[in-house]
Amino acid sequence: MSSAEKPGLVPYYKLRTEIDSLCESLEKVHSKQLKCKKGCDLCCMAISVFPVEFFAIQAELNLESLSGLPVPKDEDQCRFLVNHSCTIYNSRPVICRTHGLPLLYMSMESDEYELSLCELNFTDYDFEDFDEENTYPMDRINSQLYQINKNFVVCLEDAKYTEQDRIPLAELISK
């Protein structure tokens, strides 16, 4: 069994497949508004991910082949963005898979939903045009990811991480 097939990672991969399917259907619905394409990297920044995502991505990648990637001059830029292209695109984290789509989530200040949009997409939109059917349900997906991570960290042998820990994605490559 390869490390990418470890049982603790299976729920994460299943969720990621569901996310990709949802994203694909939303991309079709919003195809006229989406400006996302190769070279568009406004949203590509240095991020941290849950341990389950870190280990799942690590299991999929040939890390040796990535060790020669240039170090970005800007520490806020994603370590895996090279020449405006993602070098880990097929294994990218959940947050990277959802960027560009209309994201719907519950406000921290009220009991109202908020809509998050890329400033390059949906330049002419009306909030009323969006509903649960044509937006990405961030709260539901994030809750599922959190639960999967919670179950995953309990199974780690060294108990180094808690359910709330985040690991900088750049740590996939040793310095």
Describe the global form.
globular
Q: Count structural domains.
A: 1
Q: Give average pLDDT, whole number.
A: 86
Which residues sit in consecutive blocks of at least 5 with pLDDT less than 50? none
* Count of alpha/pi helices: 5
Number of strands: 7
Distance between the termini: 29 Å
Helix content range of the residues, please?
Answer: 25-40%
Instruction: Report the order of strands and helices.
Output: HEHHEEHEEEHE
Class by SSE composition: alpha+beta
Strand order of the main beta sheet, please?
5-4-6
Measured by DSSP, the beta-strand proportion falls in: 5-15%
Note the main sheet.
Answer: 3 strands, mixed
| Rg (CA only) | 17 Å
Which helices and strands occur, and which strands form pairs?
Blueprint (H helix, E strand, L loop, with lengths): L9 H20 L18 E2 L1 H10 L2 H4 L14 E2 L2 E2 L7 H5 L4 E4 L6 E4 L19 E2 H18 L11 E2 L7
Parallel strand pairs: 4-6
Antiparallel strand pairs: 1-7, 2-3, 4-5
Helix pairs in contact: 1-5
Characterization of this structure:
With 175 residues, this protein is an alpha+beta fold. It has one domain (3-172). Helices cover 33% and strands 10% of the residues. A 3-stranded mixed β-sheet has the order 5-4-6. A two-stranded antiparallel sheet has the order 1-7. A two-stranded antiparallel ribbon has the order 2-3. α1 (10-29) runs antiparallel to α5. The longest helix has 20 residues, at 10-29. The chain is globular.
Question: In brief, what are we looking at here?
Answer:
This protein is an alpha+beta fold and about 180 residues long. It contains five helices and seven strands; from the N terminus they run H-E-H-H-E-E-H-E-E-E-H-E. Strand 4 and strand 5 form a beta hairpin.
